[in-house]
Amino acid sequence: MARPETKLVPLPATNFVPERDVAKKPILETRNLGIDFGGLAAVDGLDLAVSPTEIAGLIGPNGAGKTTVFNLLTAVYKPSRGTILFDGRDTAGMNSVQLNKAGIARTFQNIRLFDSLSVLDNVKLGLHNSFRYGMFTGILRLPGYWRKERQANERAAELLSIFSMEGLADHRAGSLPYGAQRRLEIIRALATEPKLLLLDEPAAGMNPSETAELMENIVKVRDTFQIAVLLIEHEMSLVMGICEGICVLNFGKTIAKGTPSQIQNNPQVVEAYLGRRKQDGGDAQSN
User: What percent of the chain has pLDDT above 70?
Assistant: First the structure.
């Protein structure tokens, strides 16, 4: 179903956010962010803003630096320069665990589930930010342990119901079809109660019907939890169908920002994906 395009308005440092959130501070903002590997700038001068309820896209050809950006945002890598602000707070010095507790959750290109555990237990592992009990309470199975376990089971089942997966709660995670495993990974990330959900190629390996369902589910997640979503994706029907603001990288540098229609009609973006065409109108040349 076609959605009306969101109007973007500028912020300082050449950033853009949806008009509805212009009075709010971005949940995520990067300023001149960069990282070098052996003298090569994998990401260079990235200025990016994501508003508190935005679905944003980070796209670009293979090797553009997209996953490297996610690794910077989640403290897998430390930046060589620049600043990352999450909910107005400089994240310098924070590790991945601290960032998750602060409200950043992510999925990965390659699914990372505990295959031998049940679907329910995989979700419960994501509840560590909200359900805790002491070591002795757990070892001795005191009443507090059983109370927390009951609450965690109920919350996990509630989260599974978002994607209509509650009936699979007792199944082994590794036995699920590929698309269901992707959904389970998103649910587990949601269990950490994020303010910002980072999705790294969530539609990878999905067929068109699964991708269409995923699009609806991502919008449902944003609307239900009132959180921001930043996704990396090569499936352009998904990106153009649900993203409000899009940032395009090529060789670690930003080459375009804007709405889906602006990005689709940007000559630099077309060239980055398809190659420069000969002046005489011949076949595209590879970059």
Answer: 86
